[in-house]
Model the fold of this input.
Amino acid sequence: MMIKSKSRRWARSVLNAALVIFFYGCAASELYAQNGPDSLPQLSESEAEWVADQIFNNECARRMDCLTSWNAGEDFPSLGIGHFIWYREGQQERFVESFPQLLAYYVSRGEQLPAWLAGLPGWESPWSDRQTFLEARQGAQLSELRAFLYDTRATQTAFIMQRMEESLPKLMQASDRPEAVQDLFYRIANTSSPYGMYTLIDYVNFKGEGTALSERYQGEGWGLLQVLEFMLDNPPILDDESALLEQFAAAARAVLARRIANAPAERNESRWRDGWNNRTFTYVP
Done:
């Protein structure tokens, strides 16, 4: 009941946050208003709500208890609708940490963090291991954190959308085909609204930009850059909108299969293959 009663307010918050992002800066505003092949499309209120809800479903099956998770086989918790990674003090991993960036985004928007969270030195994860985290799941701190993350889903969605928008310069800088990457990025963004935007937003949140050198197995990445370059390496890229998104989804599955093949055997990443593949199927209308 509470979820239904808040859905419209959440949708409006998501839309407002998205508009702030898409109209940030005078030059960017003019570009987006044109809504041409070199711009990002605007999302309607219902489209923004759908994108946000789809991300929540992808990561948490819309379950509130999933907002504070620590997956078996991983050495860090994953929090919020985007399952943002959070490292403890001194921890270094190959995956890009994102939860402290989200906390900084809350603060930049003037949103108040739970007192215990705001007071953590360096905003570092306080749990030493998965067992300690699981034992604390029903405690006051994690219960408060889940409620906070549920009530601020719109802010998290805006953060995810901003990350996608800001990814393009990174992709272009990291590629030896920057103009081709840019053209394909915008073509996908403007495809079958809101699916094109959702595809880019979700994949960047799901597997990253693909520009971090630490996110590699045997020299091969698995982020958005690798998916776009896989498409460029396997032409022709089709003009039909549904076919273009099908090509993206197929390329994503190929890149993820390569990641699984390259991963250290002890990680047993093949156990995630079906779930990862199923996620890519949501990119096609």
